[in-house]
């Protein structure tokens, strides 16, 4: 039954004057808060769009304003989907009008001026208008399921853009397979999470192509140096992700040895980078597991990325993923702290039976070939992780070298991977370990225990929010690992644990 009733119907938008008297007569919610709650989950369309004016910020409670935001976001997706359909139709019209002699794409650009008209109509730059047309064309031709989800307000426009951009390197058939895998996941993901999920599925669907693309991009590695305002500059490099992770870890480790002297951690990290580059005490020293050129050491996998014939006696482990990475013990040549790079890779990938992607901590999915090159580099130490097969949640770390309290800390950091507040991507290693049920300092036996089941990684901001901001509450399901946050408005948001199967 349509809760809007006949008063909500019309052939044109705006034919219904949604005053308080009008909304009270509809066969549906009554107060603005009730309308906001309904529209936050209703499928958007002309009828629901006609009711949006009732969502007056001055008449909504704080809870109603959050619901109103969700309702407006769903309708934004609906409008953007229709706009994409119109843009795709304009592009199709332009294609149909092209002379037969200029059907090829390069020549088409000379004749197709749709981009210019769209740019003028929408007050966009030519580059932005061209991008809008490209996304619309791809959604209409190759990703109708994603376009339908956008139209229903289940995903946002930037998620749809992510699908077209990430899958552009794939054949249409393979791209369709990737889209099909992501359909059920995307409504529950933020845009950044969608991009990471796409990267992983693309690596899984096209491992050979992914390795070829990686090698091609690797040949394009370069330094970057851009001037900034106020006498500052941006300096860095485009390089393989595993090397960037190793450099990042080295900077963090060296920064931890520097005295504060009134500096923040961010400032110390920059100073550590300058010191490592300009004041290196041993210019001839090579990074463990790498040649001076930055290539992996020769021992290990073949150029094709296959694993060695057998594992060493201390590197085998039944089932589950294995974390590995170049690790220097003690201090480095200049008296600096050791650095650690962590990669999580399934055992079947490690031994060459599968080409599924691995996970580089602090970066995301990498190819199986990259993972093997890291895993079999000189100086690598392996740790076995045991996961729950049905959920992919980490349930145990290998306690071979740490005291129980250190093992618990290592377990929680590895299990959570990131801050457990929804959508926060602060790495767990930089977070506080917070008691979900507060620890009782006066009577420890009566409060929350210091065990993995009662601990969660929280960045400093969200730790303070949970502890000191009235109205925020959190619960953790020890069986599934899902953390549920309740906001002061009463809305609930969930954060699922890192899934080591994906």
List keywords for this structure.
single chain; 502 residues; alpha+beta; 6-stranded antiparallel beta sheet; 3-stranded antiparallel beta sheet; 13 strands
Strand order of the largest sheet: 6-5-4-3-7-8
Which percent bin holds the helix content? 40-55%
Reported for the largest beta sheet, the result is: 6 strands, antiparallel
Gap between N and C termini: 40 Å
Judging from the principal axes of the Cα atoms, what is the shape? globular
Integer-rounded radius of gyration: 27 Å
Secondary structure class reads alpha+beta
Total number of helical segments?
18
- Uncertain regions spanning at least 5 consecutive residues: 6-17, 283-319, 325-338, 398-404
Beta-strand share of residues: 5-15%
Average pLDDT, all residues: 80
- Total beta strands: 13
Fold and architecture overview:
The chain has helices spanning 20-25, 32-39, 46-49, 62-97, 105-111, 114-122, 126-142, 144-151, 157-166, 172-182, 191-205, 207-218, 241-255, 265-278, 347-350, 368-375, 404-416, 460-468; strands spanning 222-227, 233-238, 321-324, 343-346, 358-360, 364-366, 383-387, 394-397, 432-435, 455-458, 473-476, 483-486, 492-495. It is of the alpha+beta class and 502 residues long. It has a 6-stranded antiparallel sheet, with helices on both faces. α2 (32-39) crosses α4 (62-97), α6 packs across α7 (126-142) and α11 (191-205) packs across α12 (207-218). The chain starts with 19 loop residues before the first helix and ends in a 7-residue tail after the last strand. Residues 6-17, 283-319, 325-338 and 398-404 have low confidence and may be disordered.
């Amino acid at each position: 039954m349509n809760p809007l009733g006949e008063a909500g119907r019309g052939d044109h938008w705006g034919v219904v004057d949604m005053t308080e008297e009008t909304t009270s007569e509809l066969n549906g919610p009554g107060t603005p808060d009730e309308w906001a709650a309904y529209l936050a989950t209703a499928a958007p369309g002309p009828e629901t769009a006609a009711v949006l004016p009732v969502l007056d910020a001055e008449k909504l409670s704080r809870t109603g304003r959050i619901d109103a935001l969700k309702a407006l976001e769903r309708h934004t997706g609906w409008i953007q989907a229709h706009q994409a359909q119109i843009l795709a139709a304009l592009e199709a019209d332009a294609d149909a009008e092209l002379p037969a002699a200029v059907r090829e794409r390069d020549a088409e650009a000379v004749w197709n001026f749709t981009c210019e008209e769209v740019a003028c109509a929408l007050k966009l730059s030519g580059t932005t208008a061209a991008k809008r047309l490209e996304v619309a064309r791809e959604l209409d031709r190759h990703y109708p399921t994603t376009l339908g989800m956008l139209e229903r307000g289940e995903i946002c426009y930037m998620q749809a853009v992510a699908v077209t951009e990430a899958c552009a390197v794939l054949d249409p058939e393979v791209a369709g397979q990737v889209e099909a895998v992501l359909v059920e996941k995307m409504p529950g993901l933020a845009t950044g999470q969608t991009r990471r999920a796409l990267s992983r599925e693309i690596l899984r669907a096209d491992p050979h192509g992914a390795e070829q693309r990686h090698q091609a991009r690797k040949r394009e590695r370069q330094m970057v140096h851009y001037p900034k305002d106020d006498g500052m500059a941006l300096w860095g490099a485009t390089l393989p992700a595993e090397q960037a992770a190793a450099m990042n870890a080295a900077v963090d480790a060296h920064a931890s040895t520097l005295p504060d002297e009134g500096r923040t951690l961010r400032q110390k990290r920059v100073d550590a980078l300058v010191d490592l580059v300009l004041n290196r005490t041993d210019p001839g020293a090579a990074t463990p597991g790498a040649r001076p050129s930055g290539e992996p050491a020769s021992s290990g996998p073949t150029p094709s990325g296959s694993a060695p014939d057998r594992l060493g006696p201390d590197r085998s482990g039944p089932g589950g993923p294995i974390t590995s990475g170049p690790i220097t013990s003690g201090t480095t040549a200049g008296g600096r702290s050791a650095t650690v790079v962590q990669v999580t890779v399934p055992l079947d990938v490690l031994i060459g039976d599968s080409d599924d992607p691995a996970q580089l901590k602090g970066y995301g999915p990498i190819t199986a070939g990259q993972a093997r090159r890291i895993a079999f580099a000189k100086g690598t130490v392996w740790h076995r992780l045991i996961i729950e097969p049905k959920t992919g949640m980490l349930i145990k770390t290998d306690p071979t070298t740490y005291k129980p309290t250190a093992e618990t800390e290592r377990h929680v950091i590895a299990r959570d991977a990131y801050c457990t507040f929804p959508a926060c991507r602060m790495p767990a290693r930089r977070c506080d370990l917070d008691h979900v049920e507060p620890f009782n300092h006066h009577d420890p036996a009566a409060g929350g225990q210091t065990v993995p089941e009662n601990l969660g990684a929280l960045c400093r901001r969200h730790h303070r929010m949970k502890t000191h901001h009235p109205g925020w509450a959190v619960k953790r399901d020890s069986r599934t690992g899902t953390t549920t946050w309740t906001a002061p408005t009463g809305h609930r948001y969930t954060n699922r644990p890192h899934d080591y199967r994906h």
